[in-house]
C-alpha cells in the first residue's frame, strides 16, 4: 500500500498562495471579495501536488478499480484510514474509522438469454449485445415463464402531477417495458413534468421500484443515449460482473424478481413485430391520459446468479468542534468504482481495470484536501466536521443510503452536506456548476466564495441527465438535510464555454465508466484548487457560525427538513 507524504502546514500555505495567484480569472473581484479570498487561501492549505498524488495512488492498478468486497476495497479503506490518521482526525464512528455496510453481491450468469415469443414466433436476446438483466432478490435462481409484456410508457405514477402510466392495467406477474427519463423529455415539452430537466421519476432506480410496487415480475427499460445521458456501453459495463445491494432488512424499498435494459434497436424491432412503431409510442407516451398497451409478446428467462452475503465499509473521520461538537458539517465522496472485469478468456493485453480516476478518486482526494485545510485552520472550527467516504455509490447510492439510516451524527444535528463527485480537471473556469441549482441556502454561501474568486454560479448544462439524483447527496436530501453538489464550471478561462463542453463530452464519451478513466499527469489542476477552496469556504462559514441553512421555499425537501428539526436549533 502506498502512503502519501504530506507537506508541513507552512509549505501547504505557501503552495496554496502560489496556486491562488495562478488561478486568476478575467473577472476582477471587489476589494472586499479579494480580502475574503486571501483569508480563505491562507487558511485553505490546499495543495495541487497532494491532490494529484492522492488521485494517482487511489486510481492505480494496484487498487484494482476499487470494487466493493474485493481486495481493492481492502487496500482502499486501509489507505483511507491511514490518510485520516496522518491528518490527525479522530474516528468518525465511535472508536472506529469504519461503518460496516451489509451487502449482497450478485453476479448474473452472462450466458443468460431472454427468450421471447413475439406474435407467436420465438426470439432470443443475448446478454450484453441485446440486453442486460439481473436480480436484486438475493435468489440464486429466478425462473420466469411466459410473462406477458406490457408497454407502460415512462413507468411513472405521480398522483401529485395527475399522471399514472399504470392506470387501468393490471401488471401483476407481467413484464413491463418502458422508456427512460420523464414524460416531456423526448418531445421537449416544458408543460410535462420539468421538460428537459429530469426528475426522480425519470431515474431507472425509481422505475424499477414502481414496477415492483405494481406487482410486476420483471421490468425492461428501453435504452436511448439522450434519455439516459450515456451510451449502451455504460449500461453494459455497469451491469456486467458483480452487482451489489443492501441486505433486504436494511432497504425497505420493493424489489423485482428481475430487472434490466434492452437496446433501442431491439425495442424498435420487438415493437414492430407486435404492430407498433417506436417513434409513434414516444409521441403517445408523452400525452396526458396515456394508456398502457399490452403487447403480443411474452418473456421467459431462467436467470442463475452467484449470490454472496458480504459487507463493505464506509470510512469516516471527525474533526471535533471546539464549542459545538454535537453539530456537524459533512463532506462526502464515494470511494468505490467498477473493479476489474477480466475473465479467464480475456486477452492478456486488454485493459480491464476500471480505475475511476475522475469518478471518483478526485472526490476522495478533494475531501482529504479540505480535511487538510480544516486541520491547518486557526482558530479551529467551532462545529465538528465529518469526512465521509462512502461505498456502493455505483450500485445505487447504497453506502450513503445506509449511513442516512444509521448516522454517526444525528440528522437533526447535521448542519449541511457537501458532496464531491467527479471533479473537473480541465483547468480554471469563470463559473461553478451547481447541480440542481435553486435548491438550498447553501448556494448563497457558495456564491460569496465564488464571487471572491471572480466567478459566478450556473446550473448544470444538461439537467436532463438527472445528475442530482445520481450521487450520494440525494439520500441526505430525501431525509431533509440541505445538500450541495458543485464543481468546476463550463466557462473555462482557456477556451470558454466551447472548450468546457468539449472536455465534458469527451470524458462522457471516452472515459466515463470505462477503463480509460485513468490518472493523467497533464491535468490542469488550477481549477480543482479553486473549487476546493470555495467548497472549504462554505463549510468553514457554517462551522464558525450558528446558521442552520434550509432548502428554499417551495423545494420538495423543505418539509422534511422542517419536520426533522421540529424546533429551531439553539
Give a description of the structure.
With 570 residues, the protein is of the alpha/beta class. The protein is built from 16 helices and 21 strands. The strands form three sheets. The protein has a 17-stranded mixed sheet that branches. Helix 5 links the parallel strand 9 and strand 10. Helix 1 runs antiparallel to helix 2, helix 2 packs across helix 12 and helix 3 packs across helix 10. The longest helix is centred in the middle third of the chain and has 20 residues. The protein is globular and about 75 Å long. The two termini are 45 Å apart. The N terminus is likely disordered.
Which helices and strands appear, and what pairs or packs with what?
Blueprint: H1 9-22, H2 31-44, H3 48-58, H4 71-86, E1 90-91, E2 98-108, E3 113-118, E4 121-126, E5 131-134, E6 141-151, E7 157-158, E8 163-164, E9 175-179, H5 204-213, E10 218-222, H6 225-228, H7 232-239, E11 242-246, E12 258-262, H8 264-273, H9 278-285, E13 293-319, E14 324-334, E15 339-340, E16 353-354, H10 357-376, E17 383-390, H11 398-405, E18 414-419, E19 431-434, H12 442-452, E20 456-459, H13 473-479, E21 483-488, H14 496-510, H15 526-543, H16 558-565
Parallel strand pairs: 6-9, 9-10, 10-12, 14-17, 14-18, 18-21, 19-20
Antiparallel strand pairs: 1-13, 2-11, 2-13, 3-4, 3-13, 5-12, 6-13, 7-8, 13-17, 15-16, 19-21
Short summary:
With 570 residues, the chain is of the alpha/beta class. The protein is built from 16 helices and 21 strands. The strands form 3 sheets. It has a 17-stranded mixed sheet that branches. The chain has a two-stranded antiparallel sheet with strand order 7-8. A two-stranded antiparallel sheet has the order 15-16.
